[in-house]
Amino acid sequence: MAKKQINLRSKLRWGIVGVFALLILSVGFILPSAFNRAISFVERTTAVSIPHISEKSFKLGLDLQGGAHLIYKANVANIPQIDRASAVDGVRDVIERRINGLGVSEPNIQTARVGEEYRLNIELPGIEDVNQAIALIGDTPILEFREQNTEPPRELTEEEVQMMNERNAVALERANEALEKVKDGAQFDDLVKEYSEDSDTNNNNGYIGFLGPNTVLGEPLYRWAATHNSGDISDTLIESEVAHHIVRRGGQQDGVPLIDASHILVCYLGARNCPNPMYTKEEAAARAQELYDEANADNFAALARDNSDDQLSASEGGSFSPFPAGSGPYPELDSAIINTEDGQIIGPVETPYGYHVVYKQGTTVPTEYEVSHIAVAKVREVDILPPQDPWKPTELGGKQLDRAEVVTDSRTGNVQVSLQFDSEGTDLFEEITKRNVGQPVAIFLDGQPISVPTVQQVISGGNAVITGTFSVPEARELAQRLNTGALPVPIDLISEQSVGATLGAESLQKSLKAGLAGIILVMIFMMLYYRLPGILSVISLSVYISVSLAIFKLIGVTLSLAGIAGFILSIGMAVDANVLIFERLKEELREGKSMKASVEEGFIRAWSSIRDGNLSTLITCFLLIWFGSSFVQGFAATLAIGILVSMFSAITITRVLLRFVIPWFGHYGNALFLGAKKTNDSDV
Question: Which regions span the lipid bilayer (predicted)?
Fold first, then answer.
């Protein structure tokens, strides 16, 4: 019996360790900056590498960070019933592309059907000019045909060069000022808010994430991080193409494996992006086979330089930049390269671009480093004089397109998209194809290229075919987008709600103060009314709050005012569970039962009430999530998560704490334990 008691006591000690470990870990996820600073201090003191916690921030709703919520009704009265859903999906795709052009971070666009109406719900967090967004969304989709722009770009004027140099001098002075403050011991996170001009990381203490060796703009940061330790802060400015950086190193991890490969491309008349075809398809296949037979590890680079039609890689001996599996420059080659052993040459492999001979040199696993930074932006030539558009417009557009539809090539069985123009479009298209034989002509929708076919011959008669490696769904989507450009579905704005960034921040501060005040008052009440068990419930409640917030952050729950209300309500329900347990416990003690028996019986008797009450609330939450609007869904989601965590904290954590402390208070407890009076009744 004594040995059994010792084992039970040991398990309870480990349970207490687990409770406080869970509390510390969840607080670390909520406050990663402070936690990482503590980790860095430990690492510097002990020379032991400890993983850092990601410093991503909570995801805030429109009412807390500001933004706009728009609801549109799609007018589908003139669209056949069978095509209405796909037409509305096409409008959603168009709107998403336009909103992306505004630079909105994480817009949320959803379609919904309410009776016979089709609606689009659009959330635009952080947007400043709502009227601009409304104007952009409501415009008719624009379909354009463009040809290559061969005009040389202009150079910067003397005034523009002088302005660029002056602004860069100011930026350098500002960066050095921040660096001196770092050296004087100022907090890195505070300086991020004061100096950094990287809008993507300013609200997250400058946290960029893990950088690999192929991060183009982050290459100087990666080189610095590779030669420093976790917790180090650069004592000189790190200059990249876009900014001056002060860098803080975090942890490290193995990155995604990178493939080193080279290729020789032989294209042919009709292949994609083959500007000067020298072969028919059959001749290209035969030539690729000859090169494959001749190639080996020693001569592959020379063969690529002399024979490859991929001009970008030919000068580098056919070499690709190292790339992750599945993300190569030619998607159609990926599976062949992945399934090839290191050091092997394969081919010919056919893609829409022609025939490839591929040499896979090897695979490496790079180290990635976790980095935060203070970035002071530089002015570049491209900021003053943007790169010249590689495409120039023609007079042919959506107004000349009668219909786009999915067809199948009768000879090959390949899926294609057929275009039918009106009389004006027929003449324009013939002129465009006449001056672009062997050259690509791009089809743009809302300023974005959706297809870049190569003109194989002069096309007359008003009919054209877009060929490619389309699947049926892809071809259907392309035809849908073209028809949406030619015959747009009208949309009407039926609801607009906007919150300014200042008002959102004020709402957040008030919500935090109200929530904190409520939590403190509840904790004080529990300690005064239930004494020692109340103190234990405060510990359990602290674990509950920290775990819930950590879950919100980890799974990306959007916290709105309604969501915070749901969380605060769940705190009340978590307290209710403890109240039920403690009241049952008081009843058992007043009947003269021992402390141990009263605790166990109190949990057993309270569980059914806690379970039934919370289950009914959870059912309501799931119904609200399924059928409610976004604001109601936020309330229901946080309430449901809170209830599930509260059941764990009340039944598991509170029980572990009570079991651990009851041996300190004798067989029947004392006044600290609910004021129970000692009796002489036998143990039950």
Answer: 12-35
Q: How far apart are CA 433 and CA 393, in angstroms?
A: 14
For 13-93, strand residue ranges (E) read 59-60, 67-74
C-beta separation of 198 from 241 below 8 A: no
Cross-strand bridge partners of residue 369:
211, 252
Q: Does domain 158-255+369-381 have CATH number 1.10.3470?
A: no
Model pLDDT for residues 490-548, shown as the tens digit of each residue? 788 888 877 665 555 676 677 778 878 888 888 888 888 878 888 888 888 889 999 99
Distances (CA, A) of 201 to 134, 257, 382, 455, 593: 27, 26, 22, 44, 59
Domain 500-674 of CATH type 1.20.1640.10:
yes
- Partnered with residue 373 across adjacent β-strands are 247
Q: Which two tokens stand for residue 299?
A: 């001569």
Please say whether the beta carbons of 483 and 181 come within 8 A.
Answer: no
- Asked if residue 245 lies in contact with residue 220, where contact means CB atoms within 8 angstroms, the answer is yes
Long-range contacts of 222-230 (CB under 8 A, 24+ apart): 222/369, 222/371, 224/249, 225/249, 225/369, 225/371, 226/367, 226/369, 229/43, 229/44, 230/39, 230/40, 230/43, 230/49, 230/50, 230/52, 230/370
Query: Whats the size of the chain, residue-wise?
Result: 684
Strand order in the sheet with 238-239: 207-211, 367-377, 243-254, 238-239
The CATH code of the domain at 258-365 is 3.10.50.40
Q: Give percent of the chain with pLDDT exceeding 70.
A: 87
Name the residue among 569, 668, 562 with its Cα closest to residue 625.
Answer: 562
Nearest to 141 by CA among 468, 436, 489: 489
Residue 528 tokens, joined: 């005064």
Distance in angstroms (rounded) separating the CA atoms of residues 335 and 347: 13
Distance, in Å, from the CA atom of 220 to the CA atom of 537, rounded to the nearest integer, reads 51
| Same fold flag, 158-255+369-381 and 258-365 | yes
386-477 CATH fold: Gyrase A; domain 2 (3.30.1360)
Strand order in the sheet with 391-397: 391-397, 143-148, 441-445, 448-451
Distance, CA of 84 to CA of 76 (rounded, Å) = 6
- Helix, strand, coil shares, percent, the chain, to 5: 50, 20, 30
Strand partners, 60: 559
Domain boundaries, the chain: 69-140+489-499, 158-255+369-381, 258-365, 386-477, 500-674
Please state which CATH class domain 69-140+489-499 belongs to.
alpha beta
Tokens encoding 323: 């790339």
9-52 residue pLDDT tens = 677 788 788 888 888 888 888 888 777 777 777 777 776 667 77
Residue 324 CB burial class (10 angstroms; 0-12, 13-18, ≥19): middle
**CA 319 to each of CA 206, 284, 290, 363: distance values in angstroms, whole numbers, following the listed order:** 35, 21, 20, 14
In a 13 Å sphere around the CA of 197, the CA atoms on its Cβ side amount to 13
Cα–Cα distance for residue pair 620/568, rounded to 1 Å: 17
Structure token digits, residue 198: 């990287």
Q: How far apart are the first and last CA of the chain?
A: 18
C-beta of residue 12 within 8 angstroms of C-beta of residue 20: no
Rounded to whole angstroms, the Cα distance separating 303 from 289 reads 13
Taken in order 485, 490, 491, 492, the sign of the CA dihedral is: positive
